[in-house]
Amino acid sequence: MCLLQDLLQHAQDTLDEIDAWLVILANTLAQDALNRGDLNSLRSLITTWQTGAPDLVLQFFGDHAVWYVEGIVDMDRLTTILTAGSLPKKVATSGVARPTSVWQEVVQGLWTGHVVVLTLHQPGAMLLNLAKPPQRDIGEPHTEQSVRGPQEAFVEPAGTKLAQLRHRLPSPNLEVTTFTVGRRFPVRCDLIYCRGIASEAVVHTMQARIQQLDVDTITNVTRLGSFIRDQPWSLFPTVRYSERVDWVALQLESGKVAVSVAGDPFVLTAPASLMDFYRTSEDYSAAWYDTSFMRIIRIVAWAFGVMLPGWYIALTEVNPDLISPTLFDIVSGSHTGLPFTPIVEVVVMILVIEILREAAVRLPTVLATTIGTVGAIVVGTAVVKAGFVSPQIIVLMTFTALSLFSVPTYELLASWRFTSWAVLLSAFVLGIYGIALVTLALSIELVALTSFGTPYLMPWSPWRPKDWLDTLWRVPWRSLRRRSTAGREADLQWQEEI
Prior knowledge:
16 helices, 498 residues
């Protein structure tokens, strides 16, 4: 049996090698035909490709052949070139043509929206950049909504995203380095930063990590971020994703580096400390006192959302001697006659909340609002009347869920949800000591994390009091004269003293 498996594996490896050689042979023959201007040989190859690509179009105009992919080409401009006068003259004066003699460039250009023009007995080809892929209109952000400030979100095409940033930062200091990532399905990736402000070390590190990628393709920026970030196995995100143009522009002004992937409306920004995930674009559009108050509310909500269920279980089931007898009588009395212990009630309510949240995300907007509101009311009322869960647990878990949802960024919300489970289980097993151990482990993890060399807990670890002007609170713009050092900026001066 083992011998048969070895033979089958050997045969499969041989077939893979043969397939690879056939691909190399086909590319070699195509390159030779391109060098000789042999349209008949190229036509045979293209006809073979059309079997698996019905949108591949090949048209002949005398001694010329036009080759393109239908649906990603500007047909109006192409029709104008093909129907007016001499084809070679129109191609030469189109302003979008460039010659090439490399077959791989022809293939790559074809699948990215270029029109390939071949001429009989003439070596090489002309590539016309008439790309017009399907795209949607620029709309409002859906995941980072705000009351004040710009309401512009990124869209999928890489060129449009770059144009949106150029519109907000009209300066030659906004530099862009373009990469092509992916062996089988190449995708455009843009590294964007402000020259003279961004840290050169961070820029070089990002460039090196992107260039080292050896994958089939990159479908979105989240996948790219998981490859290039520090500590990829960490539960906490060390790069931030945003679909807001104003937020990414502000990060670039602050010395951060942005990465954009074609086909994804989100843009990655780094380095990102923990406090970056608690800042929003609205913080810089509202008054300083309103921003400061809301940031403190977010931190308080984090404490309640992560720690409140664990503290409730620890003080009611493991360490009841730490609360007053009157409070203990009230808590224990609410569970009299119920079939489950408080830990079971809390776990059940967490699962109910997670199911309602997932259902609200997957359903259309109108139904999601109805399901989220009605479902919470109906389920909460039903479980209390049925005698499965005490009213105190309903109040506790509702407050916990609202506190967790106050986190501005989705990726950090997922981290805190898992952390709250760890706090809850440790409190059930060890009580107050369990909460202390999880808190200690959490502190060690956060202190050890870095984002492209930037400590995750800045400005607390290391201690940098000057960065507190825009951390838990934000001072007025007149007093905010320097950038935070979290981005390892080359120029820390934000404005001169007024």
